[in-house]
Design brief:
222 residues; cell cycle; rod-shaped; coiled coil
Amino acid sequence: MNASADMSILSLLTHASVVVQAVLAILIILSLVSWTRIFQKFFQLKQAKRLSEDFESRFWSGAELNKLYEHAQNHREHSGTQERIFASGMTEFLKLSTRGSAEALDGVRRAMRATYQREMDNLESGLPTLASIGSVSPYIGLFGTVWGIMNAFTGLSALDNASLATVAPGIAEALVATAIGLFAAIPAVAAYNRFANDVERLSNRYESFAEEFQNILQRQRG
């Protein structure tokens, strides 16, 4: 985009009505919130996948459960979701080691399920915000466009000679609101779909691991 185009858009924005300017300000804020959430969630999920892969490689390498549990307890702050699920299950298993097999395994299942739910709530945080921005932004932009066009045509009533050149600036400034609404919505929707899919895949991964770990404990108690 050249300098003249930048100046023309800037001129349209500065001469827009107060309502349209307010709409544009809201959309810009929503866009900033959206991109902040996108970057935060991208790095969070990337780290979650990396930590899960690291723990799985150690878990399935044949390491002793007690050593894995000791490592998880000593590195709580830097452990991933899967390792925390394992640690909660192992803690309950050791606590109920003197109980019957069925009771101990039921306690393990409940402990891992509670940790799983907390971790999933953390991974899913921010997704509703992206979904809301993606859904609402186009309508906010459309409201600004409708308002701007209404003002443009209302202003024609005070003119003796109305032409396209007279109404064009008002319509153009109104359409900018729709454009910015789409600019805020499209990345939010795309990111939401991508992250929701990543979270679902991680969820399936964690649930599968929890079931496999319960089977391992059941064979040990068997």
